[in-house]
Amino acid sequence: QVQLVESGGGLVQPGGSLRLSCLASGFTFSTRDMSWYRQAPGNERELVATITNIGGITNYADSVKGRFTISRDNAKNTVHLQMNSLKPEDTAVYYCYAKRRWTWEYDYWGQGTQVTVSS
User: Which end of the chain, N or C, is more open, meaning fewer C-beta atoms within 10 Å of its C-beta?
Assistant: First the structure.
């Protein structure tokens, strides 16, 4: 059974930090590019950060560059998102996403974790 289970969300003050984690199971984690997306109320889901399966190459949305860091641990089937200098506009539900590598595979989504940045 495929699962992507996010954790680490919560309420934080502006300028604070949170570290999100996503634990994967049921598929070969190391072969997948992994991403974090987020969706705020009334907005479309947007890509926040991606890390490739090979080489760990990272890419970020302009809005989070320099503040967020994505990382992965293939031995633990886990991807993290370290979020620093958080702003109220970072408030959203954050989703973990596993992109399929081959056409016969499926993309997978986690259930999401709420991040609220407010004083």
Answer: N
Q: Where are the alpha helices (DSSP H) in the chain?
A: none
pLDDT in tens, 50-63: 999 988 899 999 99
**Residue 109 in contact with residue 96, Cβ under 8 Å?**
yes
- CB atoms closer than 10 angstroms to residue 108: 18
Q: How far is CA 59 from CA 10, 11, 64, in A?
A: 24, 26, 10
DSSP category for residue 112: -
- Could you report the per-residue pLDDT of 80-100, keeping only the tens digit for each? 999 999 999 999 999 999 999
Torsion from C-alpha of 62, 6, 91, 109, nearest 10 degrees? 60
